[in-house]
Amino acid sequence: MSTKFTTDLGFEITLPDGAAPVEESSAGPQSRQFSLADASIVSVVRDDAAAASLADAIGWTEQMAEHYVASFGAAEEMQGAIQSPGKQAFAYSVAFSDNEKWPRRATLIGTLLDGGAFIGITLLTTNLGQPLDVQLVQSLVDGLAVTE
């Protein structure tokens, strides 16, 4: 089961049941955040000027991943293209320990939708050695749609 959330940024996202919007996003302007039932955080930002091609979307994910490398000494886990009708997407996953030394995984997903909308997603999870939930990553991309 899943729940659809419509944002005031001109897009909607479908998330697993148990997801809830975070009242104030800490991810900056033009962003929204959602908590998942497992305490993961999904941050979404719409910035149509950030990417006009898949190469730009890849560049965005690499730049975002670099933040975790520079700030937390993150290590790359995996990266690759995501296939979804009407979308070009790329994901980059890194593992790191946060300021409290808690093991984390950040998966950065750059998605260019038909019509030119660009939506960046950061999936922040606890990393206890389990593999990346690629089905969740795929569902995040599949669940994006422009509403305006």
Outline the structure in words.
- This is DUF1795 domain-containing protein.
- The chain is α+β, with helices and mostly antiparallel strands and about 150 residues long.
- The protein has a domain at about 1-15 and about 55-105 and about 120-148.
- The chain is about 20% helix and about 45% strand.
- It contains 2 helices and 10 strands.
- Strands 3-4-5-9-8-7-6 form a 7-stranded antiparallel β-sheet. Strands 1-2-10 form a 3-stranded antiparallel β-sheet.
- Strand 4 (about 30-35) and strand 5 form a beta hairpin.
- The model has no long low-confidence stretch (mean pLDDT about 95).
Write the layout of secondary structure elements.
Blueprint: E1 2-6, E2 11-16, E3 20-21, E4 31-35, E5 41-46, H1 54-72, E6 75-84, E7 87-97, E8 103-113, E9 118-126, H2 134-142, E10 144-146
Antiparallel strand pairs: 1-2, 2-10, 3-4, 4-5, 5-9, 6-7, 7-8, 8-9
Q: Short description, anyone?
A:
This protein is α+β, with helices and mostly antiparallel strands and 148 residues long. It contains two helices and ten strands, in the order E-E-E-E-E-H-E-E-E-E-H-E.
Radius of gyration: 14 Å
Largest sheet entry: 7 strands, antiparallel
Strand content: over 45%
Helix content: 10-25%
Labels describing this entry:
DUF1795 domain-containing protein; alpha+beta; 148 residues; 10 strands; three-stranded antiparallel sheet; seven-stranded antiparallel sheet
